[in-house]
Structures are given as structure tokens and as C-alpha cells.
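[Archive record]
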Amino acid sequence: MAGAGSRLSSRTMAFVLAGGRGSRLKELTDTRAKPAVYFGGKTRIVDFALSNALNSGIRKMAVATQYKAHSLIRHCQRGWSFFRAERNEYLDILPASQRVSEEKWYLGTADAVTQNIDIVDSYDVDYLLVLAGDHIYKMDYELMLRQHVDSEADVTVGCLTVPRMEATAFGVMHVDETDQITSFLEKPADPPSIPGEPDKALASMGIYVFKWSFLRELLQRDADDPNSSHDFGGDIIPDVVKNGKAVAHRFDTSCVRHDAEAPSYWRDVGTIDAYWQANIDLTNFDPDLNLWDKNWPVWTYSEAVPPAKFIHDEEDRRGVAVSSLVAGGCIISGTEIRESLLFTMVHTNSYASLTRAVVMPYVTVGRHAQLTNCVIDRGVEIPEGLVVGEDPEEDAKFFRVSDGGVTLITKPMIAKWAAAQ
């Protein structure tokens, strides 16, 4: 075992739960799991949890997949294959592969770890860091590990400090003055406040630290319980709160900020509106999420593509982007782009305009198209002259219009539109 003064991250495995569909993202997750959804112009959502682990010093990771996992598995193989086994570094992809019985897929988040106990054992680690693979944030897990050891907790739960009545959508921790968790409440109508902060509550981030030997025993007991849903939030954490020592770790203390005055940044981009807003926020003059920070980079798979290219300089036919992010391989041909985010290899044509648009890779935008407040899925070919974002009722006949007025456009929707013309 490493000496007491060494980083705890070197004795830790990160287990990323990345099997969920994310059904609130509607058609965006028809072909991919939520962690594989594109974000920020180059990355995918899962890259944030993996990058946090890597930047924190963790070199042993596993990604548990289930729902429509091919896109996610391919991304991890292409973008995260730099670990070297001879240096005791690993990233294992753990699909739900019917390892226990022919009928048994992952039954819950805890079961995803239970079915891979032998694999975790093979890593020979002291601690297991369980992560949700579908949130956008930057966090130094070493600080959470250190608190876990110093407090002698059985489980440490990563928590957001949120306005009390906003916590109704979360699992909420009721804590004492030392941040020891006294009860865990799933989506309570009247969330308990933080001692001394009556207007705030602690909401679970779905991040947990355990000593592996302790969790291993707990998981085996849970697997034998026919009444359990085999879920961390539903079964494992309440059990430890009741019978052991559970401690809350406040995200504010380990959030990685680009400057001391910046707010702590965490987003669940689980709805079309939240996803669109978080991407568009990156076009702000000084965004709260800093993708330019070389001290805490977000690692991902980067295709080898040429630089972005802007062509034509005539009235109404000028290749220009203002307050926007444009990835490599894009060709902006006589198109005006404002407050938008374009992923790799997007090609736009003359006289078109994009305003507050999130455009995924390999999209083509036809001439004279006018696109406002929209999300365009990978590989969509926008027809010439299509206008979206001006008449929600008309848009809703063919496309998905969110509660917040954002229009989602996918290949099947464009086929439906084309058939009606």
C-alpha cells in the first residue's frame, strides 16, 4: 500500500455509471445514451466525469454502459485509449453483458457495480469513487477523498448547495452541524434546510466515495435482498445513513473554478431546454464554464480536421460568426452566425442565418435557411429555405418544440417535413 502521505487518488478507482438513456432529452437519445450526447463544440457529456477523474490523479477507471451503448463505447475507445497497463493505468468498458445470468441486465446503479465485483477486485484499490456520467462540472475528487478519510465516514456523498425549494427535484441530505447525514429524502415536497442556512438545502450529485472492502460487503448483502431495487440512491445510501456513518461533501469546496470569484458550476443537461441553454451559455463573453483552462482540461476524442473556414464577403452573403464557437472542419459559406455553437465539420451555405443554434457534427445547412433557437442533431441536412424558430405552431407540426421554445431537429423529422412538401 502507498505511504500515508501519497495522494488518495492513486489508491482509488472511478466507476462511472453511464448506462442511462436520459429520456427527457427526447429524440436526442434515440440513437445514443445521454452520456454520449455531444456538448460544448468538441466533447461529449461523459468526458467531464472522466476528465475530472484523470485531472484528480485517478488512473483506474471503469465505464458501465447499458442503453444503446455503441456510440459511447466507440467514443471511449477512440478518445480514452491512452491509458497504459504497464504503468498500472486502466479504463475498462463494462457493458451489461449478462455476466450473472442470461436474463439479468443491470437492475440498478448498485447492481452495475455488484455484477463487476471481480473486476474491481482485480484493480486492487482501497477506495471506490462512484460517478454519474451525465453531468457537466469540474471537480477535484482528491479533496472529496481526503474528507472521506479524515472524517472516517462509511460513505461520503457529493452534494450541491441549492435554494431549498429547488431541492424538490433531487435526493436531499438532512445533515447535522458536522455535515453528518441524518436522513436521506428522495425528492421531498418540503426539503430540510442546512443548519444555519434556512433557505438552502444539500442535494445529492450522484457522487459517492466508499472504502471498497466496506462497499463490497454491502453490495453482496443488497444483492441477496429480494425487496431491494439495487440502487445507490434508493437502497445503499439510506442503509448507510441508518446503520453507519454517512457524511456530506459540499461541491463548493472542491469545484474547480477558473478564478476565485467565479461561481461553482454544475449542470444537469437532462432536458432539451437545459441542454440548449448550457451550450449557448458558452458563447457568453466570460462563461461560467471555462473550456480554455489548461490546468484542468476536458479530454476527449478529437478528429483530425482542417481549421474552420469562412468564405464570401458580399452584402447578405458574408461568412461571419459573432459571439459563437465554431469547431474545426466547419465551412461557413456566406452565412451569418450569431450566439451559436457549431461542432466539427458543419457546412453552411450562402444566404442562410443561424441565431442561438446548437449544431452537432456533420450537419449541412442549405441556402436561405433561417434557424433560430434550435438544436440540430448529427448528420442532419437542412433543406434550402427552411425557416425554424419564428412560428412555434408551424415548427411543432414536424419538429420537437420544447416547453422553453427550443426546436429540436433530427433526420427522421426532416424526412417527415420533406414528405409533406
